[in-house]
Amino acid sequence: ILDNDIATIGLSDVCNGRQATSSELTATNPVTIDIVNQGINPATNIPVTLEVDGALIVSETIAGPVAPGDTVNYTFTTTVDLSQPGIYDILAFSAWSPDSSAGNDTAAVGA
């Protein structure tokens, strides 16, 4: 166990539609990043970033504190436009500077 380790464990609220259709995907889809504090210290002011198809959508901060072992499901305030049929590459990651394990900071999904 590390002193400081925020892991991005998933994305949710983004795959509610069917691929290659616009039946359930809209111009204002929310995206939620799921993070867990795997370290032994509480975490505060955790930067999180959202990208779609390689383009930066938004960078925001989870204020915290996030206690050791706790999971946070943070919904970005900016929504994403998934209204056009197709497959979108959605990437979210945390960039907390005290984090000593960067290899678990990113989650990706195709929607």
Characteristic key phrases:
elongated; 4-stranded antiparallel sheet; mainly beta; single chain; 0% helix
Counting helices, strands and paired strands, the structural category is: mainly beta
Major beta sheet summary: 4 strands, antiparallel
Query: What integer value in Å does the Rg equal?
Result: 14 Å
Approximately what portion of the residues adopt beta-strand conformation?
35-45%
Portion in helices: under 10%
**pLDDT below 50 for ≥5 consecutive residues: which ranges?**
none
Strands of the widest sheet, in order across it, are 4-3-6-7
Q: How is this structure best described in words?
A:
With 111 residues, the chain is mainly β. The protein has strands spanning 6-12, 32-37, 46-52, 55-62, 71-75, 89-94, 106-110. Strands 4-3-6-7 form a four-stranded antiparallel sheet, with no helix packed on it. The protein starts with 5 loop residues before the first strand and ends with a strand. The model has no long low-confidence stretch (mean pLDDT 89).
